Amino acid sequence: MSMIRVLNAVATAVAGTVGWSEAANPAADPEVVAAMLGEVGIRAGSGELDSAVRRFQARSGLRTDGIAGPETVHALARAAAEHRHLREIGLAA
Question: What pLDDT band is residue 3 in, cutting at 50, 70 and 90?
């Protein structure tokens, strides 16, 4: 996954937290969301992105609506970064 795609997903999350309207807040790229879910150990196969997002939301204490909105994308980006860091220092598989 390219850094630009991750930054675009995070920008989508930040846009929602600073109060941009939904019309100005583009949807997160499904491929980026699926890749980040994979980084935190949640597989999102073909047609399963909605349920994978719901599993992440439930595990993270978020509203489980299956939508990768700003709050979900922000939490997912943070969780993926934490998992990458733990792998780098040898504390996670």
Answer: low
In a domain, 66, yes or no: yes
Task: Give the helix ranges, DSSP H, for the chain.
Answer: 3-17, 30-39, 49-60, 70-88
Give how far Cα 58 sits from Cα of 28, 62, 63, 64, 91, Å.
19, 6, 7, 6, 24
- Give backbone dihedrals phi and psi of 11, rounded to 5 degrees, phi first: -60, -40
Instruction: Provide the domain limits for residue 57.
Output: 3-88
Residues 29-52 as b or e (16 or more Cβ within 10 Å = b) = beebbbbbbebbebebeeeebeeb
Residue 93 in domain: no
Give the per-residue pLDDT at 25.
Answer: 60
The number of domains in the chain is: 1
d(CA 17, CA 53): 19
Contact 5, 32 (CB under 8 A): yes
